[in-house]
TrEMBL record:
Matching Pfam families: Glyco_hydro_18
GO biological process, alphabetically ordered: carbohydrate metabolic process
Alphabetized InterPro entries for the sequence: Chitinase_II/V-like_cat, Chitinase_insertion_sf, GH, Glyco_hydro18_cat
UniProt protein name: GH18 domain-containing protein
Alphabetized SMART domains for the sequence: Glyco_18
GO MF annotations, alphabetized: chitin binding
PANTHER family with a match to the protein in the record: CHITINASE DOMAIN-CONTAINING PROTEIN 1, CHITINASE DOMAIN-CONTAINING PROTEIN 1 FAMILY MEMBER
Domain GH18: 67-382
Length: 382
């Protein structure tokens, strides 16, 4: 063997040693990186595995005002003496307005013999420094029809409402006129006239005037002329919940998307609303509750659904579902969650509900349409 050939073998041997060393170092680094990645992944519970959350944009939220409805039946040793917030779904929602729900009229005056009136003092003592609005509940069809046809009754009801607002130091009025009747021109005009009168007298007292509106007003042709009402209403509170009724087919509380499946969705609702009303005058309300339907094999309801607060749903299903089978799945279109389970008797159930994560998805969409006022139904439900 010549000296030249020996030199070549020596060079090759050194080269192979260097390559081997680099491979070993690379494998060791990859192993450490892999181990570090595994350590950084949090443990996933069984329930979390069943729910597939939708990613949220954590830095895109701009909330100018967040309201919370406080139903009279939830006031039990309550004191709002610390900041109220809901945090999940990628954002923190800080409450700054409490809306007491509320007082209600008879056909001629404010009813002073019902729990909503009795609890006024409790709410007034509890609200502390929060901005507070007073709701007048008008959901009885017969009573509302009589009031709309009687200007004397309207005058008395408006006057007494404003006196109560002054006595208990409210900052404004919210008219909750839920009238599920045929949208005849006469009814629509009666509502507009009543709102005009109520609004003008409220503003004379230097109070704000708001009004709740069904989220499905356009879809189900409710008897409200929103363009006309816009002249008199400072803030519209859009009830973006209860789209699927307790007495109807199972479905989301109010789907973000999915009009092809559900017939309507929030994206269409917002486009319609902002074509008639300035976006800054819209407060979108989310219902922190759901419905539990008993259904047949085709998911058709067998009877009216049971309403469940978000808190009840979390306790009954999400912490540890006691039923078998029990399938929990977030719907990517509506952003809401459905649960399918069989109870102790073998009866099949379907549950749909809104939660903080679905609200976060919807708030992202609202922000993209310059809507930054939201609210929740209701205190005690989450």
């Amino acid at each position: 063997m010549t000296r030249k050939r020996k030199g070549n073998y020596k060079k090759r041997f050194i080269f192979l040693l260097l390559v081997g060393a680099l491979v070993i170092i690379g494998l060791y680094s990859t192993k450490n990186l892999y181990q570090k990645t595994i350590v950084d992944i949090p443990k996933i519970t069984k329930i979390q595995q069943l729910i597939s959350p939708i990613p949220t944009q954590t830095n895109s939220f701009q909330l100018f005002s967040t309201s919370l409805f406080v139903p009279y039946w939830t006031l039990k040793n309550t004191e709002f003496n610390s900041p109220i917030s809901l945090q999940d779904g990628g954002f923190k929602s800080q409450i700054n307005t409490l809306i007491y729900f509320g007082i209600t009229p008879t056909e001629t005056e404010i009813n002073k013999n019902e729990p909503g009136f009795y609890n006024l003092s409790t709410f007034s003592i509890s609200k502390n420094s929060y901005r507070a609005l007073l709701t007048i509940r008008m959901s009885n069809e017969d009573v509302t029809s009589t009031i709309l046809e009687n200007e004397t009754s309207q005058k008395t009801i408006i006057q007494e409402t404003l006196e109560i607002a002054s006595q208990y130091d409210f900052d404004g009025i919210v008219l909750d006129l839920e009238h599920s009747v045929l949208p005849t021109s006469d009814i629509i005009q009666q509502i507009t006239d009543f709102v005009e009168t109520f609004s003008l007298q409220t503003k004379q007292q230097e109070l704000t005037f708001g009004m709740t509106i069904y989220g499905d007003t356009y879809y189900r042709q409710r008897p409200y002329d929103l363009k006309a009402l816009d002249q008199y209403v400072d803030q519209f509170y859009i009830m973006a919940y209860d789209f699927h009724k307790s007495y109807g087919e199972p479905g989301p509380n109010f789907p973000l998307k999915g009009k092809e499946i559900y017939g309507y969705d929030m994206e269409i609702m917002i486009r319609q609303l902002i074509s008639d009303i300035d976006a800054q005058k819209l407060t979108i309300l989310f219902g922190l509750f759901g419905y539990d339907w008993s259904v047949d094999d085709q998911n058709r309801p067998l009877k009216p659904a049971q309403s469940l607060t978000l808190r009840q749903i979390k306790n009954r299903f999400l912490e540890s579902c006691p039923f078998t089978p029990c399938s929990i799945q977030r719907d990517n279109l509506s952003a809401e969650t459905s649960i399918q389970y069989a109870d102790e008797t073998g009866q099949k159930h379907v549950v749909w509900f809104e939660d903080e994560t679905s609200v976060g998805e919807k708030v992202t969409f609202l922000n993209s349409n310059s809507i930054s006022n939201i609210g929740y139904w209701a205190w005690g439900y989450y």
